[in-house]
Amino acid sequence: MKKPILAGALALATTLSLVGVGLAQSAGGLSTLRGGGVDEQVPLEQVFQQETQRFNREYRQQPPLIPHSIDQYQIDMRANQCLSCHDWTNAGDRGAPTLSMTHYLDRNGVEMDHVAGTRWFCNQCHVPQANAPELVENTFQPSTGR
Protein backbone atom coordinates (compact mmCIF):
# COMPACT_ATOMS: atom_id res chain seq x y z
CA MET A 1 0.00 0.00 0.00
CA LYS A 2 2.83 2.42 0.84
CA LYS A 3 4.73 1.87 -2.44
CA PRO A 4 1.99 3.27 -4.76
CA ILE A 5 1.55 6.33 -2.53
CA LEU A 6 5.32 6.93 -2.45
CA ALA A 7 5.59 6.51 -6.23
CA GLY A 8 2.70 8.93 -6.76
CA ALA A 9 4.24 11.53 -4.45
CA LEU A 10 7.59 11.21 -6.21
CA ALA A 11 5.96 11.61 -9.62
CA LEU A 12 4.08 14.71 -8.43
CA ALA A 13 7.25 16.28 -6.99
CA THR A 14 9.15 15.63 -10.22
CA THR A 15 6.36 17.14 -12.33
CA LEU A 16 6.17 20.25 -10.14
CA SER A 17 9.95 20.70 -10.30
CA LEU A 18 9.96 20.50 -14.09
CA VAL A 19 7.08 22.97 -14.33
CA GLY A 20 8.95 25.38 -12.03
CA VAL A 21 12.11 25.20 -14.14
CA GLY A 22 10.07 25.76 -17.30
CA LEU A 23 8.35 28.80 -15.81
CA ALA A 24 11.67 30.28 -14.64
CA GLN A 25 13.18 29.91 -18.11
CA SER A 26 10.15 31.33 -19.90
CA ALA A 27 10.05 34.34 -17.55
CA GLY A 28 13.40 35.49 -18.97
CA GLY A 29 14.99 35.79 -15.53
CA LEU A 30 17.98 33.59 -16.40
CA SER A 31 21.06 34.96 -18.14
CA THR A 32 24.54 33.68 -18.82
CA LEU A 33 27.77 35.23 -17.61
CA ARG A 34 29.30 35.07 -21.10
CA GLY A 35 26.35 36.80 -22.76
CA GLY A 36 25.43 34.03 -25.18
CA GLY A 37 23.78 30.67 -25.43
CA VAL A 38 25.61 27.40 -24.96
CA ASP A 39 25.58 26.78 -28.71
CA GLU A 40 26.80 30.29 -29.63
CA GLN A 41 30.46 30.99 -30.39
CA VAL A 42 32.04 33.78 -28.36
CA PRO A 43 34.06 36.15 -30.58
CA LEU A 44 37.79 36.13 -29.80
CA GLU A 45 37.77 39.86 -29.08
CA GLN A 46 35.85 39.15 -25.85
CA VAL A 47 38.39 36.59 -24.58
CA PHE A 48 40.95 38.10 -22.22
CA GLN A 49 44.54 37.51 -23.22
CA GLN A 50 47.10 36.32 -20.73
CA GLU A 51 49.37 38.91 -19.14
CA THR A 52 53.10 38.27 -19.46
CA GLN A 53 54.40 40.42 -16.61
CA ARG A 54 54.38 38.75 -13.21
CA PHE A 55 51.52 39.63 -10.87
CA ASN A 56 52.12 40.11 -7.16
CA ARG A 57 50.66 37.59 -4.75
CA GLU A 58 47.62 38.96 -2.94
CA TYR A 59 47.82 36.90 0.24
CA ARG A 60 50.32 34.80 2.18
CA GLN A 61 50.81 31.30 0.76
CA GLN A 62 48.93 32.13 -2.47
CA PRO A 63 50.10 29.71 -5.19
CA PRO A 64 52.07 31.67 -7.81
CA LEU A 65 50.19 32.48 -11.01
CA ILE A 66 51.48 31.08 -14.32
CA PRO A 67 52.98 33.91 -16.45
CA HIS A 68 52.95 31.93 -19.72
CA SER A 69 50.48 29.98 -21.84
CA ILE A 70 49.75 26.36 -20.92
CA ASP A 71 47.20 25.76 -23.69
CA GLN A 72 49.14 22.89 -25.28
CA TYR A 73 50.62 21.44 -22.07
CA GLN A 74 49.98 17.79 -21.30
CA ILE A 75 49.13 17.28 -17.64
CA ASP A 76 47.54 13.90 -17.05
CA MET A 77 48.19 10.61 -15.24
CA ARG A 78 51.14 9.73 -17.50
CA ALA A 79 52.85 13.07 -18.13
CA ASN A 80 53.29 16.52 -16.62
CA GLN A 81 54.88 18.92 -19.08
CA CYS A 82 55.38 21.58 -16.38
CA LEU A 83 58.13 19.42 -14.89
CA SER A 84 60.22 19.64 -18.07
CA CYS A 85 61.20 23.16 -16.90
CA HIS A 86 60.22 23.47 -13.22
CA ASP A 87 61.44 20.17 -11.71
CA TRP A 88 64.55 20.64 -9.57
CA THR A 89 66.60 18.59 -12.05
CA ASN A 90 65.78 20.93 -14.98
CA ALA A 91 65.02 24.37 -13.55
CA GLY A 92 68.62 25.60 -13.43
CA ASP A 93 69.29 24.75 -17.08
CA ARG A 94 65.97 26.25 -18.24
CA GLY A 95 66.10 29.43 -16.12
CA ALA A 96 62.71 28.57 -14.60
CA PRO A 97 61.64 28.85 -10.97
CA THR A 98 62.09 25.59 -9.07
CA LEU A 99 59.11 23.97 -7.42
CA SER A 100 58.77 24.50 -3.69
CA MET A 101 60.24 21.67 -1.62
CA THR A 102 56.71 21.01 -0.33
CA HIS A 103 55.95 19.53 -3.77
CA TYR A 104 58.48 16.75 -3.03
CA LEU A 105 56.91 15.63 0.27
CA ASP A 106 54.49 12.73 0.38
CA ARG A 107 51.35 12.89 2.51
CA ASN A 108 53.35 11.63 5.53
CA GLY A 109 56.00 14.35 5.18
CA VAL A 110 58.67 12.04 3.77
CA GLU A 111 60.98 13.84 1.32
CA MET A 112 61.24 12.30 -2.16
CA ASP A 113 63.35 12.92 -5.29
CA HIS A 114 60.26 13.19 -7.50
CA VAL A 115 57.08 15.26 -7.31
CA ALA A 116 54.51 13.82 -4.92
CA GLY A 117 51.33 12.42 -6.42
CA THR A 118 49.31 14.89 -4.36
CA ARG A 119 51.10 17.76 -6.19
CA TRP A 120 51.18 16.22 -9.68
CA PHE A 121 48.32 18.23 -11.24
CA CYS A 122 49.77 21.76 -11.17
CA ASN A 123 46.62 23.51 -12.40
CA GLN A 124 44.72 22.41 -9.29
CA CYS A 125 46.34 25.37 -7.55
CA HIS A 126 48.23 27.36 -10.19
CA VAL A 127 46.30 29.20 -12.89
CA PRO A 128 47.39 31.38 -15.83
CA GLN A 129 47.30 35.04 -14.89
CA ALA A 130 44.99 37.41 -16.74
CA ASN A 131 43.94 40.96 -15.98
CA ALA A 132 40.23 40.19 -16.37
CA PRO A 133 37.36 42.07 -14.75
CA GLU A 134 35.47 40.51 -11.87
CA LEU A 135 32.54 38.34 -12.93
CA VAL A 136 30.72 39.02 -9.68
CA GLU A 137 31.12 41.85 -7.20
CA ASN A 138 33.42 41.08 -4.26
CA THR A 139 35.02 42.95 -1.39
CA PHE A 140 38.41 41.19 -1.35
CA GLN A 141 41.32 43.32 -0.11
CA PRO A 142 44.95 42.23 -0.68
CA SER A 143 47.01 41.34 2.37
CA THR A 144 49.00 44.21 3.87
CA GLY A 145 51.86 41.99 5.06
CA ARG A 146 51.17 42.56 8.77
Automatic annotation (TrEMBL):
<comment type="function">
    <text>Electron transfer subunit of the periplasmic nitrate reductase complex NapAB. Receives electrons from the membrane-anchored tetraheme c-type NapC protein and transfers these to NapA subunit, thus allowing electron flow between membrane and periplasm. Essential for periplasmic nitrate reduction with nitrate as the terminal electron acceptor.</text>
</comment>
<comment type="similarity">
    <text>Belongs to the NapB family.</text>
</comment>
<feature type="binding site" description="axial binding residue">
    <location>
        <position position="68"/>
    </location>
    <ligand>
        <name>heme c 1</name>
    </ligand>
</feature>
<dbReference type="GO" id="GO:0042597">
    <property type="term" value="C:periplasmic space"/>
</dbReference>
<feature type="signal peptide">
    <location>
        <begin position="1"/>
        <end position="26"/>
    </location>
</feature>
<keyword id="KW-0349">Heme</keyword>
<keyword id="KW-0732">Signal</keyword>
<dbReference type="InterPro" id="IPR036280">
    <property type="entry name" value="Multihaem_cyt_sf"/>
</dbReference>
<feature type="binding site" description="covalent">
    <location>
        <position position="125"/>
    </location>
    <ligand>
        <name>heme c 2</name>
    </ligand>
</feature>
<feature type="binding site" description="covalent">
    <location>
        <position position="122"/>
    </location>
    <ligand>
        <name>heme c 2</name>
    </ligand>
</feature>
<feature type="binding site" description="axial binding residue">
    <location>
        <position position="86"/>
    </location>
    <ligand>
        <name>heme c 1</name>
    </ligand>
</feature>
<dbReference type="Pfam" id="PF03892">
    <property type="entry name" value="NapB"/>
</dbReference>
<keyword id="KW-0249">Electron transport</keyword>
<feature type="binding site" description="axial binding residue">
    <location>
        <position position="103"/>
    </location>
    <ligand>
        <name>heme c 2</name>
    </ligand>
</feature>
<keyword id="KW-0479">Metal-binding</keyword>
<dbReference type="InterPro" id="IPR005591">
    <property type="entry name" value="NapB"/>
</dbReference>
<protein>
    <recommendedName>
        <fullName>Periplasmic nitrate reductase, electron transfer subunit</fullName>
    </recommendedName>
</protein>
<comment type="subunit">
    <text>Component of the periplasmic nitrate reductase NapAB complex composed of NapA and NapB.</text>
</comment>
<dbReference type="GO" id="GO:0046872">
    <property type="term" value="F:metal ion binding"/>
</dbReference>
<keyword id="KW-0813">Transport</keyword>
<feature type="binding site" description="covalent">
    <location>
        <position position="82"/>
    </location>
    <ligand>
        <name>heme c 1</name>
    </ligand>
</feature>
<feature type="binding site" description="covalent">
    <location>
        <position position="85"/>
    </location>
    <ligand>
        <name>heme c 1</name>
    </ligand>
</feature>
<keyword id="KW-0408">Iron</keyword>
<dbReference type="GO" id="GO:0009061">
    <property type="term" value="P:anaerobic respiration"/>
</dbReference>
<feature type="binding site" description="axial binding residue">
    <location>
        <position position="126"/>
    </location>
    <ligand>
        <name>heme c 2</name>
    </ligand>
</feature>
<keyword id="KW-0574">Periplasm</keyword>
